[in-house]
Amino acid sequence: MILRFAAVVAAALVLAAPAAACAHPRTSLAYLEGQVMCPTCHTTLDMSDSAAAVQIKSFISKRIAQCATAEQIKSELVANYGQAILAAPSHKGFDLLAWWLPVAGVLGGGLVLGIGVWRWSRRQRDDVPREPAGSGLDEETERRLDDLLARFD
Amino acid sequence: MTRRLKLSAQVVALAAVAGLLALLVWQLGHQHHAPRVGAVAPSFTLRRLEGSGTVSLSAYRGKAVVLNFWASWCNPCKSEAKVLQRDWTQYRDRVVFLGVDYHDLSSDARRFVDVHGLTFPMLDDGSGNVTHGKYGITQVPETFVVSRTGRIVAHLAGPITNPTFAAEFRSALAKAAA
Lengths: 153, 178
Fold this sequence. Notes:
The complex is a heterodimer.
Chain A lengths: L1 H20 L7 H5 L17 H15 L4 H12 L14 H32 L11 H14 L1
Chain B lengths: L1 H28 L15 E4 L5 E3 L7 E7 L4 H17 L3 E8 L3 H10 L6 E4 L16 E5 L5 E5 L6 H15 L1
Parallel strand pairs in B: 3-4, 4-5
Antiparallel strand pairs in B: 1-2, 1-5, 3-6, 6-7
């Protein structure tokens, strides 16, 4: 009984030792699975159970257990598979286009939409029929109308 | 002014549509296909999986070459490895065998080579630029037999342990070695 307890304690210490040795918060497999691609199926790792994806997940788990940071793991994967292993393009060089083109597209679309709405509302205003400047009655009719109204006073 | 603005918007919209069409055509024209039997084997240079340095296919012009694409995560590659090693031992004085490791972790690939006792040169194509980009391969294992003139004489899109491919491989190998 004592021996069994000692074995459990020893196993717990062995497992806990690497965790305690980490100088920074550990990253997680769940976090990296969404950022790394499966090279053979072209989806992120969390969407794939292919043999290649399972191999990379196992590598990530091993490196997390060894206290590697997310950035370290990603750069090791890039060194092995190339930049395409990352789900998001990098923030430098030609890859910057992938980040800025959607922003430019949304801004451009908003501008076109704004101009369109502004022009449409201006046209609507121009089309509203205006009140005639005067009463629109000739002098004779106006005089008779005045006479009639005077009778009611 | 308004007319000019309208015209400019139409030109921009047309240019955008033309750009998207050009992108579609370019994409269709750049899809990766396996080279046909009889075509010249696409040239490449890859770094060695073990040790340092690179290997170019062009360096073997004048010799028959067996190009085997594999990965350590691929199950059929395991059974195929023994057959390839046996054939390499048998034909090594007449045919060059090159293994190309595809979309694989180098450490796992090296372990695979050790476990299966493979002694022919192994090349690392972790990015898949050669395997997929030049040879149009999406699944491993696949094997190409290249003649002394650099032309593809056989393409086996599956493990050479498969009875259908085994006969074709041995026939192509004998022909290339002759």
